[in-house]
Amino acid sequence: MDNNDPSIVIDPKRSGYDPSRALTEPPIVRALLIGTALSFLGLFLLVPLLQVFVAALAKGVRFYIDSIGEPNALAAIRLTLLAAFFSVVLNTLFGLASAWAIAKFEFPGKNLLITLIDLPFTVSPVVSGLIYVLLFGLQGLMGPWLRDHDLQVIFAVPGIVLATTFVTFPFVSRELIPLMQEQGPEEEEAGMVLGANGWQIFWRVTLPNIKWGLLYGVILCNARAMGEFGAVSVVSGHIRGQTNTLPLHVEILYNEYNFTAAFAAASILAFLAILTLVAKTLVGDRVGREKRVLPSVLESEAV
Amino acid sequence: MSIEVRGLSKNFNGFQAVKETSLKLETGSLTALLGPSGSGKSTLLRMIAGLETPDTGMIHLTGREATHVSAKERNVGFVFQHYALFKHMTVFENIAFGLRVRKRTPQEIETRVHELLKLIQLEGYQERFPNQLSGGQRQRVAVARALAPRPTVLLLDEPFGALDAKVREELREWILKLHEETNVTTLFVTHDQNEALEVAGRILIMNHGVIEQDGTPMEIFDKPATHFIAQFVGETNFIDTEVSEKGLAVWGPFRFSANPALPVKQRIRIYFRPNDVYVTGEFETLQVKAKIAKTRFKGTIIEFKLDIGGDKHISAQMPKGVALASGFKEGDEVYAAITAFHVFPL
Asked: I want to staple A56 with a disulfide (CB 3.0 to 4.6 A). Which of A263, B50, B61, B308 is the partner?
């Protein structure tokens, strides 16, 4: 839609009217607004973030490296990565399946499913953790059965993976559902009529169309999985070197008044957060483009 | 017989989109399925393609029962209104898709795609992406993609619906030429009667899920089978009156012959086209007096609103040249006769 109507072109020099300034406030108001926003950002985000790194290096680089290289810290990093890996894989699979089902098909209970996907966002993480204790703990619903088969879920790695997965459940599907709904089923239908089977349609048509949105969801899911504290804290049991994730490790060190080591571990999380932010910005840009190349379906009547 | 459909029905949550519909298309024919929005034409087309499952009825494609064959096995070409091109693939890859999933050799694919690029006059565009093409070019690529695996039938769902008037004109010409060259059995859905009348050798008119008439463009235009078709295709006047005596109806000063089988007092609606109203300045024969209440310029034709007395009006059309030569203007006294009309009982 280009706007070439010459009658609405305004010459700023002749009319003294500059359209770019039409919606601009006086300089004093602008300075006040921008100043407030920036100082708020600095006070509540930037200063604390810098403080993490300053405190982490308070006793020198040597101490910093030692606190991170210490076996319990390494075990915590490993467990955090493991839990994040499993929750990302599981939630990617679930996210793809649920978004596919919701965007491309009509079925009874669809609205219920959409609502339920958001449940982990609305439930307090501590409650999420408790749910698993009640289900899989020794006094829990499945406790006796698990004990008889010599399986441990609570106070062990499986519990941590489960709790992390539950908390990060909505990220991928929330990202994909609107994207896939917007794209509609037409390309898949075209693929089917052209003779492609389900797998071919998924790999050649659907996935390339949603890959940036999917990656965006995965990044968010991963960030949340690594930083999760509440739910994991309930199911972990805090066994050092075994069931401590990085956030739990930070808490233990902090409670032992080992502040510098606590901040050293925290700095890894902070660093991961910054990395996520950068990745998110880069990928978010591509998601925007993914949406923009859609044909404008609204410009004519759909029969 | 390329496509044969018998007693096809489809219900969407209580809405009967298609009702007990049957049709037969000869191999190599070019047919339009014309109807207003919501008449069920797209649903019928999608059922033939296998994109919707019919509730009842049968579909035969090239003599083979295909009702329960999946869309991927039917070997039909389908063109969507909004192109549905794979936007992350180049033009070449889009056209090659149907061949790649059929595991054709690279040489075969190369040859076939270039053949089609030539057919759609887009040679040199093979490395472009869909968003680098105009609407008309995209739709041509969509047609080429559908034709690539050599389908037995080509189905087009409002293929020009998303394009502007000028491009539509061009693509109509193009699709006619394409059909002459490829001779693939083609069925296209449209709500644009001009498109159907110009392009198709045969038109099926659909309304409320039922095919109401099946005929050549001229038959559809001159012998509408139902009320709906009489007012849907082309411009028309309609008047409501009743049979005044056996075989005769009167409306204002006009007298119409009616089917003698219709009982006296039967309510009827009479349709007649504005260009079937014969207007002259001098009385010739069997005409009634009228006054030109309004003239309207419509490009190649001029339309007159005629006041025939008693607060009754009809519209008449004539080619611009004829109208100018006769010098008719608003307020003139003229004589009018209705030369062709259709009577339907109400």
From this structure: A263
DSSP assignment, residue B284? -
Q: Which residues of A touch B43 (CB under 8 A)?
A: none
Range A61-84 average pLDDT: 89
Name the nearest CA neighbour of A171 among A207, A117, A221: A221
From residue B112, give the alpha-carbon distance in Å to each of B80, B109, B153, B218.
22, 5, 18, 38
Section A120-132 average pLDDT? 89
Tokens read off for B30 = 């070019």
- In chain A, residues with a C-beta closer than 8 Å to the C-beta of B74 are 193
Per-residue pLDDT of B21-67, as tens digits, reads: 999 999 999 999 999 988 999 999 999 999 999 999 999 998 888 99
* Average pLDDT over chain B, rounded to an integer: 90
A295 — contact with chain B (CB < 8 Å)?
A: yes
Which pLDDT value is given to residue A296? 38
d(CA A295, CA A291): 9
Q: Identify any residues that bridge with B188 across adjacent strands, giving them in sequence order.
A: B32, B156
Architecture of domain A59-299: Orthogonal Bundle (1.10)
Q: What does DSSP assign to residue B2?
A: -
Long-range contacts of A102-105 (CB under 8 A, 24+ apart): A102/A173, A102/A177, A102/A180, A102/A181, A103/A176, A103/A177, A103/A180, A103/A181, A103/A183, A103/A184, A103/A185, A104/A180, A104/A185, A104/A188
Cα distance from A221 to chain B (closest Cα, Å)? 26
Quote the pLDDT of residue A295: 42
Tell me which H or E stretch contains B205: strand B202-207
Residue ranges covered by each domain of chain A: 21-56, 59-299
Is A231's pLDDT higher than 80? yes
Rounded CA-CA distance B51/B79 in Å is 12
Q: How many CB atoms lie within 10 A of CB A288?
A: 10
- Percent of chain B at pLDDT > 90 equals 50
Q: What is the DSSP letter of B255?
A: E
Task: For A141-160, write each residue's pLDDT tens digit.
Answer: 888 888 888 888 888 888 89
Residue type for position B340: A
